[in-house]
């Protein structure tokens, strides 16, 4: 081993050790639990894949998995649609404006997610700020139900994860050489055509990595769906929480946790393949 | 009728003048180079013509029509960028088709025109490759094919060969000239390489500090430099700091070393005493072993000794010492003075009309 790589090992050793102890070891201990049957409120004997197959066969669990994936997809799309123009604008802005806008984007990340969720409750409740305003200016008579449903979860998650999307998009858009866009203009392309045929495809690496990040974070989010979704709203993360801390069905919880981790890893793997395909955009 | 006319074109960035009062008139099918050191404003002029930079003053006319305020996508002017600026996510074929599609060319016509463009730059068969799978020279050809395929009225090149290695650059120079002649398109070529500019162009525009110094044929630029800047920039000139004094009857005397004094008419000088840069090309200095043979009108014979000799193939280069001043001199390998030894006493023949004096010290 040469000196450079041995010092690399030494430098990464503390983090590797920490991750091994607090992440990989518990994970390894959890895995056998996911293979135990759950009988009469306790772990049964023998090994089974039943906890996993139930995720597909049980209609309730299946609906939760589908709900989780759909939620992740919608949050990702909304973040992309809202985040791209913002990132595009930040890249074009003057250096001073760019700094101010980037700080504004980062600012929500400085607030605890619980605090932010309470903020949304205060805004979206039946007697909350938004409904009161709508009634005062006479748009509605009865309050519009905006809290503890899909809408509030979506709003909350987009609010939390939009900065991630924007921060991934900015360097990707910035990396597009100005002259490539200029070349398109000299070839008689309209602004819209340049955006569609040059800028958007060339920012694909950022779009992909931002989308993957937001999707993965969304499907594993716990606090926001729990606080803004209401008691009956279930996604995989909240169900895992319930399994472990309320119904004490560790077996089902572990299986779902591994299923979630597995899906995430498959996604990250596929996206890195895709990124390679779009790579070399220089 | 001239294709492209620039009228008093100028560009200021806040207080910094990048180009001022650029006037140019270019005829149909001409190949023009804009030559100058980096930062002289040549790329700015090119980008103003393309519409990528808005001029602060002046007008741009193409075929008599004022296009100064048109956006780049309405100008029908092609541009080849220094970085090639190919669309990396499209195939070579799609890159070339991009401009044609914007002109409404579709179907069979599109296929035929793209294939023609690829053929003219000798890239037939590489249409399905991505730009990153091509060599630098091939990418360059794609960029050219892409810009000529929509048949622009003018083609602009922004230092297109500076990213290529020397051998490839020579090939591309010839190739570019061939393509330009075949297509017959009016071309403006920006470069800082004087050999490139001289060998390729019908006319060369020398720029410095945002101002056009001379706009003439390569021969005129070389033989009749309009300013001391051009004289000091073109060829391989010597630039020697000299003492300058004025005689009572108004002539200017410049001391080149301790032994040689060169007298100039009043018209040659605009300031009297002090220091001045004397500029003369290495190849314009004639060498002789005896001073008598260097006669003739307006030739100054300067005694000197050889202090260094280097053989560079077709030429021999000497460093000669004029006691207080040094000059580089090149002479043909098969000439009479090709075999001088270090320490030999010789005479340098300096023709007065090939000597330029630079009071402003505009350094290239």
Describe the model.
The complex is a heterodimer of chains A (282) and B (364). Chain A is mainly α. Chain A has one domain: MetI-like fold (Orthogonal Bundle), CATH 1.10.3720. Helix content of chain A is 76%, strand content 1%. A two-stranded antiparallel ribbon of chain A has the order 1-2. In chain A, a hairpin with a 2-residue loop joins strand 1 and strand 2. In chain A, helix 8 packs antiparallel against helix 9. The longest helix of chain A has 34 residues. Chain A is globular and about 75 Å long. The model of chain A has no long low-confidence stretch (mean pLDDT 90). Chain B has 364 residues and is α+β, with helices and mostly antiparallel strands. In chain B, 23% of the residues lie in helices and 37% in strands. In chain B, strands 6-7-8-3-9-10 form a six-stranded mixed beta sheet, with helices on both faces. In chain B, helix 5 links the parallel strand 7 and strand 8. In chain B, helix 2 packs across helix 3, helix 2 runs parallel beside helix 4 and helix 3 crosses helix 4. The longest helix of chain B has 18 residues. Chain B is elongated and about 75 Å long. Chains A and B meet through helix 8 and helix 9 of A and strand 6 and helix 2 of B.
- The residue fraction in helices of chain B comes out at 10-25%
Structural class of chain B: alpha+beta
Summed up, the domain count of chain A is 1
| Order of H and E elements of chain B | EEEHEEEHHHEHEHEEHHEEEEEEEEEE
What is the number of strand segments of chain B?
Answer: 20
Tell me, rounded to a whole number, the average pLDDT of chain A: 90
Proportion of residues in β-strands of chain A: under 5%
CATH architecture annotation of chain A: Orthogonal Bundle
Tell me the strand percentage band of chain B: 35-45%
Measured between the Cα atoms of the first and last residue of chain B, the distance is: 35 Å
Largest interface summary: A-B, 22 and 29 residues
